[in-house]
Automatic annotation (TrEMBL):
InterPro entries per record: Sig_transdc_resp-reg_C-effctor, Tscrpt_reg_LuxR_C, WH-like_DNA-bd_sf
PANTHER family xref list: DNA-BINDING TRANSCRIPTIONAL ACTIVATOR DEVR_DOSR
Protein source organism: Desulfocapsa sulfexigens (strain DSM 10523 / SB164P1)
Name the UniProt record assigns to this protein: CheY-like receiver and HTH DNA-binding domain-containing response regulator
Residue ranges annotated for the HTH luxR-type domain, each copy included: 218-283
Coiled coil location: 126-153
Taxonomy, superkingdom: Bacteria
């Protein structure tokens, strides 16, 4: 392969390539290097031939560029044979555009010259993608923190709500025990009619059910009980017979038997040996 073909190959690369002699002077550049110089207003010749690259890096270091000194050391070590390759990534921003490059310093494989080859590759898309990823991660972190704050706030509200409900239940229970049931008992004792006394018993039992978990438990079973089935269930639980329940509700015994069958079916009591009242008493 002749030198002209090598030149064509190097000029076909998108990377910016320059060859430095043992003093750090540029002796050869490819097409991409020269086009980059033209596009960015490079002073002097766009091919940069005769320019000392080490001096440029040292001047950049004097201006506060930390990568400049590292590049000088890397080139010198590759020239001295102490390194087979030196790689560094550095920013190269302009007023209108942000750019990053990857610099690779390689030995120039020639028996006649002890030179090095610089290969600058534009890695801006990679850096921009990394920045976007970091931004997304930060946004995700902030959203996660907000969700945690919302969860904590909801937990506090639920705890307040539970405490409030517990306090309300305690107050309601105390009020029924202290302000209602004593007077219901006095009223029952003053009545002579058995049916009226039975009605007071039902009122007392229902009040006790209100302050006990029975009705809530019965409702939580999602049995779709009718209002009269709930009444019958509550009276069965108190130990009332079908005749007594029929008298209280003003319906026939056969109607109560019909409700009993529906309750057993909806409660899943297929075994006839299971007592309906015993099961209802277990719903605490």
């Amino acid at each position: 392969m002749n030198d002209h073909m090598y030149e064509i190959i190097v000029d076909s690369l998108s990377a910016h390539v320059a060859v430095l002699d043992d003093k750090g002077v540029i002796v050869k550049t490819n097409r991409a290097w020269q086009e980059y110089g033209e596009e960015n207003g490079l002073e002097g010749k766009t091919d940069s031939l005769g320019v000392n690259y080490l001096n440029i890096c040292e001047a950049a270091t004097a201006c506060g560029d930390p990568e400049g000194e590292l590049v000088v050391v890397g080139i010198q070590k590759v020239l001295a044979g102490e390194l087979l390759e030196f790689v560094i990534q550095y920013p190269c921003h302009s007023p209108s555009r942000r750019r990053w490059f990857n610099l690779r310093v390689l030995p120039y494989l020639s028996e006649a010259e002890h030179w090095v080859m610089l290969v600058h590759e534009d890695v801006t898309p990679l850096f921009l993608a990394q920045e976007e990823l970091q931004q997304k991660e930060e946004e995700l972190r902030l959203k996660s923190e907000k969700l945690e704050e919302v969860n904590v706030a909801l937990k506090v509200l639920l705890e307040h709500r539970e405490r409030g409900l517990a306090d309300l239940e305690q107050r309601m229970t105390a009020n029924i025990h202290e302000l209602v049931l004593p007077y219901a008992e006095k009223l029952k004792n003053s009545l002579k009619n058995p049916r009226e006394r039975t009605l007071i018993d039902i009122v007392e039992n229902n009040l006790n059910d209100i302050i006990s978990p029975f009705l809530n438990r019965l409702s939580s079973l999602n049995l779709l009980l009718t209002p009269q089935e709930v009444e019958v269930a509550a009276l069965i639980r108190t130990g009332k017979s079908s005749q007594e329940i029929g008298d209280v509700l003003g319906v026939s015994v056969s109607t109560i038997s019909f409700h009993r069958k529906n309750l057993r079916r909806k409660l899943g009591l297929q075994d006839r040996t299971m007592n309906l009242r015993t099961y209802l008493l277990s719903l605490q």
